[in-house]
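In this supplementary section we document a worked example of the pipeline. Step one takes a protein sequence of length 202 as its only input; no multiple sequence alignment statistics are reported here. Step two produces a three-dimensional model, which step three serialises into structure tokens for compact storage. The input and output of this example are shown verbatim.
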Amino acid sequence: MTPIAEQPPAERLARILDDLCKAVAARGPGGFLPIPLLMLVWTRIRQASLRIARLAARAASGKPPIVRRAPRAAPTNPAPRKPARRLPRRAGWLIGPVPAAGGYASQLQYLLTQPDMVALLDAAPGIDRLLRPLCRMLGVARPKLPPRPTTPRPTTPRPTTPRPIPRHPPKKPFAAATARAIPRFRPRPAHGPPAVATPRDR
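The serialised model returned by step three reads:
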């Protein structure tokens, strides 16, 4: 049997996460963790362990890491989605209801300081992103890695279409239309007093 210290860092990390899943599941029957929260924590740790194993196998085979592309622009009218259940954001919140998690937190902290583990995180940057929520719930500080450049998503130019000819002529400016709408003042011609008929005219 290979000693734990001589195992690859991916196997040591997988063993820590598997033991952490068992410790979380053992606190459910006693009511220390609510069942919905227990299922959410167990699922997150288990999924992270499986994804880390796949990324570590990809890095060990010599394949290039998956480059994280720039996020797409948010749609103008997004469809309403069901709000996802979130874990507490406080650092080290899992150690209270699961005291055994403190031992696994110290093991994970020691593993992240080892040179072979830092080299694995540099070769497979997706593992570092998967460890963020796990380190937060255990109160573990992650090692600082150099930022990796992101490749922008290629954009295809849109075809330019000619503008349609308007059917109606353009409207006149507001000032000209207002000036024409106001009638002009025209003075009336002056008339003299009406003629009075005299007896001679009769």
